[in-house]
Structures are given as structure tokens and as C-alpha cells.
Amino acid sequence: MRNRRGLAQAAGRWSATHRWAAVLLWLAFVVVATVAGGMVTQQEPTPAELTNGPARHAEQILDDAGLTLPAHEVVFVHSDRVTVDSPEFRRAVADVTGRIRGTGKVRDVVSPLDPAGASAVSKDRHSALVQFDMAGDAVKAKGTVQPVLDAVAKSAQASPGVTVEQFGEASFAHKYEEKLHTDYTNAETISFPVTLGILLVAFGALVAALLPVVLAITAVVAAGGLLTLGSHLVHVDQNGSSVMSLIGIAVGVDYSLFYIRRVREERARGNSTEAAVSAAAATSGRSVIVSGLTVMVSLAGLFLSGNGIFYGMATATIIVVAVAVLGSVTVLPALLSLLAHRIDKGRVPLLPRMRVEDIDGAADTEGVKRGFWGAVLGAVLRRPAVSLVLCGGALLALVAPAFSLHTSDPGVSDLSAENLPVLQTYEQIQRAFPGSSTPAKVVVKADGLSGSAGDATLQRFTKAVAAASPQLSGPVTFRVSDNGKVAVATVGLAGSGTDDRSVRALRTLRTQVVPATFGKLPGADVAVGGTTAASVDTNANLSDRAPWVAGFVLLFTFAVMLVSFRSVVVAGFTLVLNMLSVGAAYGIVVLVFQKGWGEGLLGFTSTGGIASWVPLFMFVFLFGLSMDYHVFVVSRIREGHDRGLSTPRAIEQGIRGTASVVTGAAVVMVAVAGVFGMLPQLSMKESGVGMATAVLVDATFIRIVLLPATMKLLGDANWYLPKWLGRLPAGLAEGAAGDGAAAPPRTEGPAERETVPSGT
User: Fold this and answer.
1) 3-class DSSP state for residue 419?
2) Can you say whether the dihedral through the CA atoms of 565, 569, 575, 581 is positive or negative?
3) Distances in Å between the alpha carbon of 39 and those of 33, 229, 234, 345?
4) How confident is the model at residue 243 (pLDDT cuts 50, 70, 90)?
5) How many CB atoms are located within 10 Å of the residue 234 CB?
6) Cα 560 to Cα 555: distance, rounded to the nearest angstrom
7) Is residue 528 within 8 Å of residue 62, measured between CB atoms?
8) How far is it, in rounded angstroms, from Cα 493 to Cα 438?
9) How far apart are CA 104 and CA 119, in angstroms?
10) Which has the closest alpha carbon to 691: 311, 199, 243?
11) Could you tell me which residues come within 8 angstroms of residue 52 by beta carbon, excluding any fewer than 6 positions away?
């Protein structure tokens, strides 16, 4: 058996030997990354990067021509008592018009009292719209809209009895991101004490519980600085940053949990701290590397999505996972070496202590630890075929609803009006002026758009829009670039912007109205963009790209597992088991959200579909994150096999020796996923419930039932590797599969022989 030192063991030994140097280097890395990130601003995706297909082409034409369409805003003025003809109503309109002009942040203000704005009065004349554009770039308008919102609020106070409220691209983005930031901050604030409480139970000691949390926090902080720098290469939106924090907490804690657990096991056996850290580096350390590598490979699949939102999420989470892995194999061994037996300080009363006989079942002659999961494992190993059929059948039943999954873009329905009051304004506007808040953009690139030919085409377009009523509605706006070669027309679509009515209206616009008008201009390049078009085109793109993303994740996960464990069989059933857990999560999400079974419990209204980005997000993240447990468990099984144990005995010891730490890690992950489920955004609830379900299924039914049953039935075939693959690199395999076989010598000293408190 080879005994060469791998990367994780070498890093662990160096850190344990140069303890203060490792700690100071880590702190310097965190500080430098944070300061460097603070010196620049995070770059967000451009409008073109956020969508796909024709909608992206429309944005690219505008960008290439330098024709930036300003953010369009409206002020909704309404009264149930009086109409627009009354002096009271007209005073309110005049007051708000004057106030928003006075901010200096707007342009092209059109009052419904002017002839140009006459179409912005509702049929019953109880509602009217003051229309205007934000000055400057549309993307930056959300940062400059607050003075306008303040002016409208003051006008509302000055006009009692008349509703005066603002809605538009900039005001909605401003309020939405403000709400998103508040919700994510609260979620992160909740996740830390919850995680600490779980770790206190898991370790039974305050110092041991604090260490993973501190490491996770520093990893997230450093990753945040690196992400800001990286956003200048791959643009990242706020969703990416927030997801990075929550995922960083989860994986940072999990990796530390695996490592610390192994050190405490070795110390409970009587080994010195130095030997315990070395053994943990050779086993759990390399499991962390394999797991982290697999997670990052899975996340890299999002780069095949072709969408800027997923690019940002992939970049953010890959960075934080990489930093968490780096900290786990460098500074963590140094801290464990420095703390030595003090890692067990602050013991929580009433929790049991870890004893030598609790490890590897030394006192259990039947090889199965007592307790609920021990009893389950014993039954599984006695009747593996029956267990496989029963548990597999139950999971397939959960997977079945996933075949009816269909996606939809929730649009503004992602948040309820109760959670975001600006949506109440949107709903009122939609009732009085259907389609006015979510116009489509018809972008045209052709010669002579500012001449008579362009004017004639615009008139035909306006008439065609009127003929297509009620699917399409005015007012039609038209803006031409300085060189007269690019123009953009806006037109209202029926529906909410993302519902079936809006999709049908978009189809009419694209297939009938545009080809008959702008499409007839010589050499014209026409593309339709806007909210509805972006939703339709992005959904179509994700449907096309999903098989490529899934294929990439499956292929490279198989390759990583093959190299890590040098077994075709292990790599193969890894894919099958992960697909089962992800499929079960899909099934639960369909039942809870698409079917609406969880509306009352979780406080949402079903849209009849799942947010378009959620299935792909869940597949990639869950496939990667489930590897945390799988790699750790299979590593311990392979470690026992390489020590000369029979495969059944190695399975018993491996499952039993990791059951408690996997449970602790799973509880942490479920807690973090539960934070997602608590967020008011419907799409985040869907992803949170899906992640929590998958982790629970993965850590219980998969790891405690299906994995041991499958491996027990396969026997020595688990380790099958064709001869022609015998020359595979073995660096990762040694760590994940058996450097621990060369167990460190048992050394006993007064400070090392003591038992250690543990809930795991």
C-alpha cells in the first residue's frame, strides 16, 4: 500500500507545524481580499445579459447604437368620488407634476391634462397617469429614484381624498432590491445563531461549536471581496451575492464539522493532538477537497446556461466554496493544533461524552450501534434487497409528481402585495390601464427611420396596434437614435406581463404586427424586447440548455468520483442516488407549490407553475451539495476496506462512524435551506423547500438505507475498475479512499486520554 503524502495531508501537517504562521496568513488573506474588494464597485449584469434570444438581441441593438431607453415611470392618480374633470382631481395632478419636475431627476413629463397625455385617462375618468422618464441610464435609475418617490409621497399628503402613487421600472427595482436586501440580511442574521445552536448540540462544547461558525464567517467575508473583484470579469447581481452568503455558511460549517469530528475521534482513541490532526488531514481533509471539487464542478455547469443571472450565481458560489475548502485544509488544522484539548472547553451539560467504544463500534459485538438509526441500519444490512425495493419504491413515488413539473415566470407575483406595497399600486394601474406598466419594446435597425419612410411605418404600426386591441394597447411611444438608424417603439401588452394573456399578446406582436409594419422596411433588423419577451425567451433558452447543463454535471461528477475512488461502480451509483434525491425534491416542490398543497402553511398563492430558474438551480446546487455527505461516507467505507475489513464490515463501520456527523451537517444544511423557505419571494420559497427536502432525503433514506443496501448487495464489485482504467491518477483517491489506512500511532498522555464531550 502506498504511503505518499497527499495535498490535504501536506497542508494539514504544515499548518499544524507552523500554527501561528498559518493563522496569520489566513487573516491576511481575509483582510486583503476584503480591502481589495472594497476599493471597487460590484458590476451588475447589463440588460442584455439578463435575458436571451430575440429579447437579448433587442437590448444589444440598443446598446450598440448607444440608444439607452430610460426607465419609464408613471404616477397613478385616482379617486372614487371625483373624476379627472373636477378641480380637486386636476389640482392633485398639477401638484404632483410640478413636484416631480422640481426634483431634476426626470425628463419628458407628460400630464394627463395636456393634449399629449389625453390617452392616459381611464374610460371611467376616475383614474389618470402622469408619465415621465428617469433622467440618465435605465440601469442606474433605481439608485436615483428616491427623491422622486419622496416628492410623490409629499404630493399624496397634500391631496387628501385622492390616491397619488408611483410605479415604474426604477421605483419597482428600488423597492424590490431594498426588500431583498432586508430579507437576506435578516436571513443571514437568523442563520448564524441557529447554526451555532445546532453545533452546540452536535459537539457538546462551546469552543468546538464556535470554530466552524468563525471559519464560515471569515470565508464568506473573504469571498465577498473576491466576488466584487471578479464581478469585473463576470457580472453578478444581488441574488448571486446573497446566495453566496447562505451557501458559504452551509458548506463552511459542514467542511469544518467533518474535520473537527475526525480530530475528536482520534483524540478519543488516545492519540496525541498532532497525530489526530494528521489523521484528519489524511482522511477528512481530502474528503473535503473531493467534495468541494465536485461542488464546484457541478456549479460550473451553470456557465452553460447562457444567462447572466446564472453566470453570477455560479461565480459567487464557486468562489465561496473554494475559499471554504482552502480554510478547512489550512487554517483549521492550525487552530485545532493550537487549541488542542481546549477545543472541548465550555462543555454543555447533560450531553454525552465521546468514548473510545463509541468509535467504530468497538463495544458492539454485532457491529451495529444502538439507537433508531442503528436499528434501521441493522435491518438494512440484514435484508438489503427488501430495503432497496421498499425505500427505492417510496422515493420513486416522490419522484413521480416531478414528471408533471412545468415552469412559469412569476414576474411581479414573486412577491405578494402585502410584502411589497408598491405592487398594490401596480395592481390598481393594471385594472385601470391594462398593459401600461409592462410595455413591449420593438427595436428596429434600418436606414431612414427619422425620415418620411419611418414616419409612415410608425403610422402603420400605430394603426396595427389599434386593430389588435385588446391584446395590444397604447399609447405608442417612439424614439430614434441621433443617426436615424435605430429606433425603439413601446406598446402595451394585455395581462400582467408574464401570464398567458401577455404571452399571447407578445406572439401577436411578433408574428403579425411587426412583420406587417417595421419588418417591411428594406434591410430592417427587428427584435421585440421588454418584460414579457425577456420572460418567454429566457424560459425557452433554459429549456434548450438544461440537457447540456445536466449532461455536464453528470459527466464530470462521474469523472471526479471515478478518479477519487478508483471505482466505476461507486461513480455510477453515485449518479443514480443523487438523481433520486433531486427527483424527490422536484416532486415535493411540484406538490407544495405547483399543486398548491402548501399555500396555507407557507403563506403564498400558487401560480400553477415553478419559477423558471428554480429547477436548474436546484439540480446543479443539490447535485453538488449532496456530495458532501456521499464523499464523506464512502470515504470511510473505502478506508475500512483498505485496512483489510470485508466489504460488509466496512459498510457497517463506515455508515455507523459517520451517521452522527452527517446528521449534524444535514441539520445545518436544512436550517440554511429553511431560511430560504422563510423568505417572502415565492421563487426562494420553492428553492428553499426543494433544498431542505433533498438534504433530508439524502442524509437519511439515501445514506442510511439505499447506499448500504446497494453496497451490501454488490459486495467486492463495489471496487471494480477495468484494467484499462488502472492508470488513473490516484492522488485524490488515496485521501478519500484510504490514507487513513495508515492510521497514526496511538499515543497516550494525561491530556490526551480523556474522553471528549460530544453530541455526535
Assistant:
1) coil
2) negative
3) 10, 9, 17, 40
4) confident
5) 18
6) 9
7) no
8) 7
9) 25
10) 243
11) 306, 307, 537, 538, 540, 541
Residues 176, 145 contacting (CB under 8 angstroms): no
C-alpha cell at 356: 473510545
Helices 647-678 and 682-697 cross at an angle (nearest 10°) of 160
Tell me the residue type at 140. Answer: K
Nearest alpha-carbon partner for 630 in 551, 584, 694? 694
Residues 689, 677 contacting (CB under 8 angstroms): yes
H or E stretch at 73: strand 72-78
Claim: this prediction has a pTM higher than 0.90: no
Strand arrangement of the beta sheet that strand 525-530 belongs to: 472-480, 486-493, 440-445, 525-530
- 562-603 pLDDT, tens digit per residue, is 888 888 999 999 899 989 999 999 999 999 999 989 888 887
- DSSP classification of residue 28: H
Task: Go through the chain and tell me how many residues it has.
Answer: 760
At position 178, the amino acid (one-letter code) is E
One-letter amino acid at 138 equals A
Q: pLDDT tens digit string along 178-222?
A: 887 788 778 778 887 888 888 888 778 888 889 999 999 999 999
The closest alpha carbon to 331, from 225, 226, 220, 214, belongs to 214
C-alpha cell at 436: 401600461
Q: Are strands 407-408 and 486-493 parallel, antiparallel or unpaired?
A: unpaired
DSSP code for 164: E
Dihedral sign (CA 178, 180, 184, 190): positive
C-alpha span between 113 and 35 (Å, rounded): 53
Strand positions, DSSP E, 562-658: 610-611
Question: DSSP H helical segments within 204-285, as ranges?
Answer: 206-230, 238-268, 273-280
Spatial separation of the C-alpha atoms in residues 419 and 392, rounded to whole Å: 40
The answer to whether 170 and 132 are in contact (CB under 8 A) is no
Q: How far apart are CA 166 and CA 513, in angstroms?
A: 31
Contacts of 193 (CB under 8 A, 6+ apart): none
Residues 6 or more apart whose CB falls under 8 angstroms from that of 251 comprise 292, 295, 320, 321, 324, 625, 628
Cβ atoms of residues 564 and 289 within 8 Å? no
**Residue 79 neighbours by CB distance under 10 Å:** 19
For cell 451557501, name the residue. Answer: 247
- The DSSP element (H or E) to which 12 belongs, if any, is helix 7-17
Grid cell digits, residue 251: 458548506
Residue corresponding to grid cell 474522553: 755
Strands 407-408 and 610-611, bridge-based pairing:
parallel
Please name which of 507, 526, 506 lies closest in space to residue 518, comparing C-alpha atoms: 526
What's the first-to-final CA gap in the chain, in angstroms? 31
C-alpha–C-alpha distance, residues 585 and 611, integer Å: 15
**CB neighbour class for 707 (10 Å; exposed up to 12, middle 13-18, buried from 19):** buried
Encode pLDDT of 133-173 as tens digits: 898 877 788 889 999 999 999 999 999 989 999 998 889 88
Quote the cell numbers at residue 664: 449534524
User: pLDDT, tens digit, for every residue of 503-532?
Assistant: 899 999 999 999 999 998 888 899 999 888
Cβ atoms within 10 Å, residue 156: 19
566: helix, coil or strand? coil
Cα distance between residue 381 and residue 523, in whole Å: 72
Which of 685, 756, 760 lies closest to 254 in space, CA to CA? 760
**Predicted pLDDT of residue 351:** 61
Distance between CA 616 and CA 624 in Å, rounded? Answer: 12
Task: Please give the grid coordinates belonging to residue 145.
Answer: 429614484
| 3-state SS assignment for residue 222 | helix
Looking at 613-646, list the stretches that DSSP marks H as alpha helix, in order from N- to C-terminal side: 614-625, 627-642
Task: Report the helix count and the strand count for the chain, using DSSP H and E.
Answer: 27, 12
CA 713 – CA 690 distance, rounded (Å): 30
> How many other C-beta atoms lie within 10 A of the C-beta of residue 490?
18
